[in-house]
Write a structure and sequence with these properties.
Two copies of one chain form a homodimer. Chain A is an alpha/beta fold. The first copy, chain A, contains 15 helices and 16 strands.
Chain lengths: 410, 410
């Protein structure tokens, strides 16, 4: 049985294109939505145990097919009993298609992810060292059938197609899996984005036809960059296909306004009975904007990546908050700061440790620093989505959002 | 109130110089003995949260005065509410005197810890870079009043005396504190060891006279190297002083036989009403030998240090066990090994993760690898001491030891 979605929004507050309180039911348990899914790229949410994730109340995770395909290998994961058994996490897991990393990892930044038709460097020694590749090199080449790319680990050559991506995700055994698509760069022009969109749509049909396990739910991905007509075309094409759920991917524009527009062009036209995932978004303000428009789930590496560099997430009106939405605990002023990260936070870290101690742990390069700050950051996002769920149930989401931004987003 | 010790060994099994089942009561809780105390050098047991330590059943920790003195500073620890509040650990903590690291860290290995009367390098730039110091340099100089040493962090010059060590430990606020002593090297000759022992004894008196908090229990340290007459002199001198507890320190010889002899020369002559700590010992076989002779507590970095290098502790008869008492999970054979580290271990790691996954986490340099293996190693030692306590209660300690070594120590 693939997943089901129930809309639990009280009728009195329910309106199309507005926030919704939902429940995604999978064979491995439910995800009450809206919800944020932390990312465990290599089948581990970095610096956290599954027990810590469960204690915080994490309902689901996202793991990356690309990384797991390269190491330990999808077949090795299957031999270990599948992703859930392997990583000791028995609640829902989402895997991506592997396409995004195949395109982006190692592709020279100057070219942008979208300009992937460039020279494939062949087997010369220089190109075989991904860490030292020259500007202008690219490690991925996309064609109508799939993508050929080089491993970020050893430079070896590999290939993903829609069929192989679904087959890999079947071996991994996640509950929620993603269609293989091309994620275009914000720098890609309209012509390339349109050509890529058509290809993504042809791949979508192939993904749906590929064999998958009955319990796996397949998400179609809506692309189209920051172009309203392409986003509309994506909606028209993809909503006619028998997906179990839908995700919004690709370039969400270069400004917050474009990001909001992409959501506005897309979400109101999605069928209400399918879960809606927004790929790669995890800043507090963005979660609010996504939920306000009817997104159910999000995933992003930032809470845990920020944590390991001493950046702890706090609300917009919080004293000392940076533009990234964080305090940087490496700052010398925290050396003598004997309060918790956030006195209103109920996480293990805020209940037990001073900023001064965390500052000291980072200065001492102690592993515990990243763990404690990851616990805080994931908790901060999950506290926020919990508040959102309660507010939607009570018809007070707009008040929560207003209160949250009462000093304006920084 | 300093700590108290109760001997809970059933009368039927109690004999001088034999194993004892005890209870050390401090103002921050009890330690049922025999017990192993994990080391949190910099006020963190590396890669583990205090919650994880508590869940395993850790009863007490040891933290290092030298490291905390240099960073964040003892006064900074006091401002953070003392060690317990700072590190979120509210059960007993032991601190060492700082002397051992002051002598040993940075002292050239060729010289040995004991030969500390060497040239103090002064303030030339070369010597000020501890990481690149030349062979033959030493960063510590001991005199009759104390030790002058260089920081391993920045090469700056510092000094410890018996009085300053006790004052530092007072600021840190541990429950169990150690007298300032000189720990001689196994390479030190008898003449130096004897001279050093006399100095340690003069320092002992000064430590006892220095002001300390009433709840802090002061351990006297028995030195004397591997020389029976010096060990005897240490016992005679130290047991006449009003210590709250005693610890055996210094060189324990170069072979297991010498180690056992040092214990045999010392423990039978110690007053039965004082807790007995054995410094820096943490291998399973050594815990058995220590407990068999009446040691109550141990501390050592090895379970957590081993863990971070993929060495997991297993019992002597365990297939594949190395001379160090471990399996190295980086070994390629574990890549396809779908069992737990130890099927008889009940730790979180063994209940939830395969060796293959741990092998993969180490290959991927994931932080979780060290955390999961630390959980296992600390659990392994605590399971062993729990079995020892039960066996002493039931009069079956010798059977447990025999069973444990049934294929002989490797």
């Amino acid at each position: 049985m693939p997943c089901t979605f129930e809309d639990l929004t009280p009728l009195a507050w329910s309106r199309p294109g507005g926030p919704r309180r939902g429940r995604i039911t999978t064979t491995r348990g439910v995800i009450e939505t809206p919800e944020f899914l932390p990312v465990g790229t290599r089948a581990t949410v970095k610096a956290m145990t599954p027990a810590q994730l469960a204690e915080i109340g994490v309902q689901g995770l996202l793991a990356n097919t690309y990384h797991l395909y390269l190491r330990p290998g999808a077949e090795a994961v299957r031999k270990m009993g599948g992703l859930h058994t392997m990583m000791g996490w028995h609640r829902p897991i989402m895997t991506d298609s592997g396409g995004f990393q195949a395109f982006s990892l190692g592709a020279a930044k100057e070219q942008g992810v979208g300009k992937l038709g460039g020279v494939f460097p062949g087997k010369n020694k220089e190109a075989a060292r991904p860490k030292s590749h020259k500007s202008g090199d690219t490690l991925a080449k996309v064609d109508d059938d799939g993508v050929t790319f080089r491993s970020y680990i050893d430079g070896s050559t590999h290939r993903f197609t829609p069929e192989s991506s679904i087959a890999l995700q079947r071996l991994l055994g996640a509950d929620l899996i993603l269609a293989f698509d091309e994620c275009t760069s914000p720098l890609a022009g309209k012509e390339y984005t349109e050509m890529s969109l058509e290809r993504t749509h042809r791949w979508a049909v192939r993904c749906l036809e590929a064999p998958r396990d009955p319990h796996q739910s397949l998400y179609g991905i809506l692309q189209g960059g920051a172009y309203p007509d392409l986003r509309q075309r994506a909606v028209e094409f993809m909503t006619k296909l028998p997906w179990d759920a839908l995700a919004i991917g690709g370039s969400l524009g270069e400004t917050k306004e474009e990001f909001h527009s992409v959501l506005d062009w897309t979400i109101p036209h999605l069928p209400p009975h399918l879960p809606r995932h927004l790929l790669g978004i995890g800043e507090m303000e963005d979660l609010f904007e996504g939920v306000a428009r009817g997104i159910d789930t999000f995933d992003c590496v930032i809470p845990t990546r920020f944590a390991r560099t001493a950046n702890v997430m706090v609300r917009p009106h919080f004293p000392g908050r940076s533009r990234r939405g964080t305090l940087n605990l490496r700052n010398a002023k925290y050396k003598q700061d004997f309060g918790p990260i956030d006195p209103d936070c109920s996480c293990y870290t805020c209940r037990n440790f001073h900023r001064s101690y965390l500052n000291y742990l980072f200065a001492s390069k102690e592993i515990l620093a990243g763990t404690l700050c990851s616990i805080h950051n994931v908790t901060a996002l999950l506290d926020l989505t919990r508040q959102m769920r309660e507010a939607i149930e009570q018809g007070t989401f707009q008040e929560l959002k207003r209160e949250y931004f009462r000093h304006g987003p920084t």
